[in-house]
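Hi all, posting the design record for the shared folder.

TITLE: backbone redesign
STEP: 1 of 1
STRUCTURE INPUT:
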């Protein structure tokens, strides 16, 4: 459920473009006006505003925002202005080819639905002229433990799980074959905790081919039969980015809001704030399930997400994130 607070009768994209242009004119930028408009428009409205702005002023709104804003607010607004698939494509391109931040790439890929990933792959190629799968291959193949595939040279298991997860079709509905889910729980136990060493191929196959509902059911049966969750088994049997990918998949299959509440807590816990992570999660989930994430955060940490963000941020940056978060509840 989205936290986006839209006006009941939103102005036309043309009027918004005029207001934004006015906010940029003169000495300094009227940042509050920019936030009041953009933080309260959905992806479709933001796209129309960009079109109108270019048509009226022969200028790219993104470039103008980049020149008018700065710091963390600039990062957040420039990420927000895109539609969800375009935004994910930008995050992945940056994390795979520039920052080499594989944790970010893993989070984005392994938390998205099959339909989101399918569209993301198309947008990625149209934006960057490169295939997402090729960028994954080039930038993750040196990571972690390698296993032989047929007669070829050994390949990174992390690299394989990401490739399989972005390209394998999976069902998205709530339907589950409980007998099959129970069987998968037993197969995973035999491939991991029951034997010496781990059969990573079996983990990859099940985690990349089964639906989220099926994996959640498999996790239930695993706990029921063996006394602990798949999450614990993954931590015992795997490591590094491969483990992180499997953990992200199973946690998002069971409760994505709870998973992202933990990611946000980690971003704000301890000394300093991981603003990149804070921005990424709030911006990318605002139009999807941020309301549920807020509820999970309050339930687990006995503090509202709004209060946590308020204490870790300041100025217009704080105002923008709080606008995306909606009412403090």
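Okay, here is what came back for every position:
SEQUENCE:
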């Amino acid at each position: 459920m989205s936290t986006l607070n839209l006006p009941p009768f939103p102005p036309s994209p043309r009027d918004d473009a005029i207001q934004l242009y006015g906010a940029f004119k003169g000495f300094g930028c009227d940042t509050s006006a920019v936030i009041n408009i953009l933080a309260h428009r959905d992806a479709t409205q933001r796209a129309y505003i960009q079109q109108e702005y270019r048509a009226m002023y022969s200028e790219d709104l993104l470039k103008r925002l980049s020149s008018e804003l700065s710091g963390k607010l600039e990062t957040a607004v420039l990420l927000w202005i895109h539609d969800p698939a375009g935004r994910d494509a930008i995050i992945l391109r940056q994390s795979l080819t520039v920052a080499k931040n594989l944790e970010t790439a893993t989070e984005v890929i392994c938390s998205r639905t099959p339909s989101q990933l399918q569209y993301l792959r198309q947008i990625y190629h149209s934006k960057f002229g490169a295939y997402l799968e090729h960028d994954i291959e080039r930038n993750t193949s040196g990571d972690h433990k390698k296993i032989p595939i047929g007669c070829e040279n050994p390949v990174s298991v992390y690299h394989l799980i990401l490739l399989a997860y972005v390209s394998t079709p999976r069902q998205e509905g709530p339907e589950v074959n409980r007998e099959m889910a129970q069987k998968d729980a037993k197969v995973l136990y035999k491939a991991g905790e029951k034997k010496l060493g781990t059969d990573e191929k079996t983990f990859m196959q099940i985690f990349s081919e089964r639906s989220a509902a099926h994996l959640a059911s498999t996790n239930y049966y695993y706990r029921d039969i063996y006394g602990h969750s798949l999450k614990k088994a993954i931590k015992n049997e795997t490591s590094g980015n491969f483990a992180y990918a499997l953990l992200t998949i199973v946690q998002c299959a069971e409760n994505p809001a709870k998973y992202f509440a933990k990611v946000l807590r980690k971003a704000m816990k301890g000394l300093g704030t991981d603003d990149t992570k804070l921005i990424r999660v709030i911006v990318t989930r605002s139009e999807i399930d941020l309301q549920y994430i807020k509820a999970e955060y309050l339930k687990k940490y006995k503090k509202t997400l709004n209060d946590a963000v308020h204490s870790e941020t300041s100025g217009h940056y704080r105002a923008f994130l709080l606008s995306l978060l909606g009412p403090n509840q």
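COMMENT: Confidence is low (pLDDT under 50) at residues 149-153.
Let me know if anyone wants the other runs.
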